[in-house]
Amino acid sequence: MNKITNKPASIFTTADRLWMAILLLNQRDTQYTLREFSALSGLSLGFVSKFSNLLKQAGFLEDSRHMRLKNPRALLDTIRDIYFFEKNTVHPYYTELTPEESIKKIKSIGKNREYAFTRMAGASQIAYFVRFQTVEFYVPSEADISFWKDALELTHVEFSGNINLIIPSDQRLFSTIQKIKGAKITNNIQLYLDLYKYPARGREQAEHLREKVIKT
What we know:
Elements lengths: L14 H12 L7 H8 L3 H13 L14 H11 L6 E6 L4 H11 L6 E3 H5 L11 E4 L3 H10 L3 E2 L6 E5 L10 E3 L2 E3 L2 H9 L5 H13 L2
Parallel strand pairs: 3-5
Antiparallel strand pairs: 1-4, 1-5, 2-3, 6-7
Helix pairs in contact: 1-4, 2-3, 8-9
C-alpha cells in the first residue's frame, strides 16, 4: 500500500503539475485513462503519464489503469499549502456600488465575455458564509481590464480598492468555469485555493465551501 511521502509538496514544482492536481480534484468523481485525461487537460500524454507515476509514488493516486485519486483530502491540503495567489496580477479599483450591485452588473455585462468570479464574490454565489466588501474576478488580458474599467465606471487606486480585476498566472482556469445563478465562477478547487489565505476571513469561507460543496 502506498503511503503519503514525507514531503509530497516537493513534486509540485511547475504550473503544469499544479494544474493537473487541480483538475484531478475537480474531476475526482470521474475516472479517466491517461489518454482521456491528456485530452481533457491539454497536457501531453507523456507528461500525464510521468506525473501520474510521481503521484502514485507520493500516495495520491491508486495504482490502476484509470486515474483514481487515493487520498484527495491530502492532495488538496498539499496544494493548498503551496499555492501562491500573488503569482496573479491584480488591478485594484474603486466603485461606489455595493458588492451585490457590482456582481449583478458584472453578470449582466459579462454574459458574452470571459471572466470568472473568485474569492468572496465567487463563494457568495455558491456557499455564502461571511459578509464581504471586495469583489474580485479573473479576466484574460490587459484589454479586458480596459473594457471592465470603462463598463463598470471604475476608479483606479494604488492599493486596496473594493473591486479587483485579476489576470491569472495560468489561463487554463478559464477552461473549468462553472455557471451558477447567471454568474461565471472559477471551479471549486481553484476557488478554495484562492480563498484559503485571503486575510479577510477567507479561511473561514474556504472551509465552509470545502465542507458544504467540495466535501473532500
